[in-house]
Amino acid sequence: MTRYKATIAYDGTDFAGFQSQTNQRTVQEEIEKVLTKLNSFEPVILQGSGRTDSGVHAFGQVIHFDLKGKVRDLERLRFGLDTQTPADIAVKKVELVPDDWHARYQKHEKTYEYYLENSITRSPFQRHSKAYFRYPLNFERMQEAISKLVGEHDFTGFTASGSSVDDKVRTIYQAEIIRLDEENFKFIFRGNGFLYKQVRNMVGTLIKIGNDRMPVSQIDKILTSKNRVFAGPTAAPEGLYLKEVKYAENTDI
């Protein structure tokens, strides 16, 4: 068996998330169908760097999988996967990795981006690619609040119920908001790991702060109390993108 690493992108609109689920269309399931075909119809189970929820997109999700036989031509394998998977999945790159390399457990950092349209009326052309909020937002207040998220913290208060992870301490290296134009914002979060719906819960809180319905100091209260009830609502999934996964062998993590 030979182990391969692939970098993929997908439009999450019509998927029930990344991970396989019974009677649901998922990214994992669609790719495994093609891999099994390329593996002489012997089942192939892939592993991802992490899960994304229903409606969430990815520019740079990373997976790994094993195929039997001699080493494949990497570009031919990439092309085969890219052309045989559905149009809402793209296979951007395929690489060889050691047999013990693991997309999830190899040390890495992730970058997420969240796109928000802030206008009186929602653009029909962006309804699947950006979240929407129609009321005024104070950019400076959101900038002040998001800076409080940088560093090592216990993010229990930003975690959705259902998380199976015991250790909720994570480090965020970068947290910023960019005003793209008068009606569009981009939130950027880069860290050594993120909890279940953590990014969407942080964005939902920042939106409430920007709309003057929470004080900037609410971020401190959420981090200190470790209580989800003090955070804002979970922001809509269509604005969230897994931008990039960087592994320790390629970066100073």
Number of strands: 10
Task: State the order of secondary-structure elements, H for helix, E for strand.
Answer: EHEEHEEEHEEEHHE
- What is the number of helical segments per DSSP (H or I, 4+ residues)? 5
Structural class: alpha+beta
**Level of helix content?**
10-25%
Oligomer: single chain
Biggest sheet features: 10 strands, mixed
Average pLDDT over all residues:
95
* Overall 3D shape: globular
Q: Termini, distance in Å? A: 29 Å
Bin the strand percentage. Answer: 25-35%
Uncertain regions spanning at least 5 consecutive residues: none
**What's the alpha carbon Rg, rounded to whole Å?**
19 Å
Question: Could you characterize the architecture of this molecule?
Answer:
This protein has 253 residues and is of the alpha+beta class. The chain is 21% helix and 30% strand. The protein has helices spanning 27-38, 74-84, 139-147, 198-210, 218-225; strands at residues 2-10, 47-48, 57-67, 89-96, 108-117, 131-132, 151-154, 169-181, 184-191, 240-247. Strands 1, 2, 3, 4, 5, 6, 7, 8, 9 and 10 form a 10-stranded mixed sheet that branches. A hairpin with an 8-residue loop joins strand 2 and strand 3 (57-67). The longest helix is centred in the last third of the chain and has 13 residues, at 198-210. The two termini are 29 Å apart. GO terms for molecular function: RNA binding; tRNA pseudouridine(38-40) synthase activity. Keywords: Isomerase, tRNA processing. Homodimer.
